[in-house]
Design goal:
By secondary structure, the chain is α/β, with parallel strands linked by helices. It is built from nine helices and seven strands.
């Protein structure tokens, strides 16, 4: 009899959880996101290749907010130096964020993924960017955003994997891939630092996509002809959808969900 009663209680609890999940109210009324990045974020100006589009759709489908808007400010070939305060690209970011920030009923969030072009051996602005300079550059960007938008949240994602023969207009290769991964502890330490100085504002973003693309590159990254054969760097539509989901999960977590 006791076992039967326990089973009934467990079934009741499960049904209750399912009902509450089905009718969960959005955590926010409005969520406005500014995406900062390079060509992977830009997605060749093609919505099917833009992870931000899939991220927004995921957030909408999972009822994270009543409305979710985005501004994609990813630009091909750019490094952290191109987004420093005072640079043209930072001004573009500010332009989009200012429009969003006027709505005091909305949560403003920045989703950042920079580092791919920083890691290059040569061919991009400032490459190769050292670990120390990468830390300094990202810190300047984050400090400036927090100063201008004190109620905002910032999610810093790890850059994704690329093949060690990557060599297009810029040279990356195995050396670049190793340098790219040396940025990961910088991001982790930075988030911890801001957790102490600005709690509730800067969050660790996606950490899973790098391994995912390393394992599934053949079906999720574009096959591109480079100076050392076919290389893998930019997501195709399937890869962009997966990356967008990874970003969205990190955003949802940063929002406390």
């Amino acid at each position: 009899m006791k076992n039967y009663s326990r089973r009934l209680t467990a079934i009741f609890l499960l049904i209750s959880i399912c009902i509450l999940g089905a009718f969960r109210l959005p955590a926010l009324k409005k969520l406005n996101i500014v995406f900062i990045g390079d060509s992977i974020t830009q997605g060749q100006d093609n919505p099917a290749l833009q992870p931000s589009v899939y991220a927004v759709n995921y957030l909408k489908e999972h009822n994270v907010a009543d409305t979710v808007q985005q501004a994609n400010r990813g630009i091909n070939g750019k490094t952290t130096l191109d987004y420093l305060p005072g640079e043209e690209l930072f001004t573009r970011v500010i332009g989009s964020a200012d429009e969003f920030y006027t709505d005091t009923t909305a949560q403003l969030l920045f989703s950042v993924m920079l580092g791919t072009n920083d890691s290059a051996i040569k061919g991009t602005h400032g490459a190769p960017v050292s670990v120390t300079d990468y830390d300094k550059n990202i810190t300047q960007i984050v400090d400036s955003l927090l100063k201008r938008y004190p109620n905002s949240k910032i999610v810093i994602n790890r850059p994704i994997w690329y093949s060690p023969n990557t060599y297009n207009g810029a040279m990356y290769l195995a050396e670049g891939l190793a340098r790219l991964q040396s940025y990961f502890p910088v991001i982790d330490d930075m988030v911890k630092r801001y957790g102490l100085n600005h709690p509730g504002h800067v969050f660790k973003g996606d950490t899973r996509a790098f391994k995912y693309f390393r394992k599934n590159f053949d079906k999720t990254l574009q096959h591109e002809q480079g100076r050392q054969g076919i290389f893998y760097l930019h997501p195709n539509s399937e890869g962009a959808a997966r990356l967008g989901e990874f970003w969205a999960r990190a955003i949802n977590k940063a929002l406390g969900n």
